Amino acid sequence: xxxxxxxxxxxxxxxxxxxxxxxxxxDSGELPFLAWMRSNGATGNYSYTKLFLNESCWDVFLxxxxxxxxxxxxxxxxxxxxxxxxxxxxxxxxxxYSGHASHRICVFDMVAxxxxxxxxxxxxxxxxxxxxxxxxxxxxxxxxNLESVHGLYPPxxxxxxxMIDPISGKPxxxxxxxxxxxxxxxxxxxxxxxESVRRRTAICAELxxxxxxxxxxxLYSESHTANHMLWHLGEGALPSQADESPEGxxxxxxxxxxxxxxxxxxxxxxxxxxxxIVYTIDQVSANHMDVPSMALLPELMYRWAFPGETAIGSTxxxxxxxxxxxxxxxxxxxxxxxxxxxxxxxxxISSPFEQEASGDxxxxxPANWFRNLWPRMRAFALPSxxxxxVRLNVRGRxxxxxxxxxxxxxxxxxLRDLLLRCVNxxxxxxxxxxxxxxxxxxxxxxxLPPDLIVRWGDSGPPADVLDSEEFGRIGxxxxxxxxxxxxxxxxxxxxxLAVGPGIKPGEKLRHGxxxxxxxxxxxxxxxxxxEPFDGESLI
Length: 539
Prior knowledge:
This protein is an alpha+beta fold and 539 residues long.
């Protein structure tokens, strides 16, 4: 297909639903529009391998290329860890929808940077599930105009926070998530997310009616936040006191239903020659990562670096009875975890409140509280939001390195063995699925922040406590999000539905890779890729 053959495509994403839960809802008739699309169009699945950060899937989607980039960086001179903001990283991402001068393209609130080579309109940062997000648009006045008509992203209406992006130094919007243990706040978030879906749909409808776009792209990110925070409501996960749902309905499924109704509304605005695509990207299920990666691991590294010292969590003896789970936490997760830090340790590490006041976007992550001590530690946990990341403090690599290069690999093996011995005392099972050594010498693969990646076990209930024969018990601690992502190296399967000219009802597509999705969108729009692609059209 070439640029001379113009077609119209509307491609709308559903961000990080649980595929099994979504399909169950579709099969049971709770999502009638998606069920209609499945019956009257093409259906397929495509996969990708989750590597490093959860957001790595967006690099693949936006470029049509497989990637092994970690999506984060570490400055060994400043001891600074940062997640690379996709929305600002325009120089390194050749966007699949850029460079088509003869086609009018509209991109609303994707996890994507502004393109300098797009003939149309672009908005990013109206609302997002990411930790921080920058409000951007081209033309610059567009986002403010849309917000004046349709309103802000509802979760930020209660109190917009500004954080400083450590890479660009620019302010970004941030949203505080409620406690898993305060049901009324969770249900308020659910209502805000449903309202956000409606506002997003109204904005998309205005943009679609403003012009006959050759390609229109948008994303429902509300499903991502809903899966993180509402997973336990009706899914039998934890905390148990929240299993009761209003009128027997699952608040999570209600967000899915709102998206389904909104997709149906936008379909009515499509031209007769339009290919209408709905796809899912990423996936969330029961969370086995947050507490181990963000709290248990950094505390274990602190105790290993400073034998006899403790900061976060219990000092109970290994083998002693584990306290029953608590469900009476009344404050934000970071505040509840900070309460477990002893007075002596509070004088040594940074409090989340000090970090938040300075605009640190990772102030809520307990691993980040140890940052001022990293130069004094032989190894430390990075504030990952996925698998556990451990980095050694190496002479000649870190500015204040303590570990000789010759001791790099033996030290990694020592830490790996320590981590593999750690146990969840609630189950008696080892906490780590495995521990990956990311390099044999400290100076290879310099773009990778972690020297070790800890992949936590994902069978059984999520862990809130760790026992180490050498360093004692850490926890129990409250949970942050009940829904989480899969471990590094896991295959993630997603769904594609498409209706439109030339697409046969009931057609089953070949199983593809995520790289095939942008190729499919371009092919249906009659466009050729302006940069090399790894993928091929599924239709």
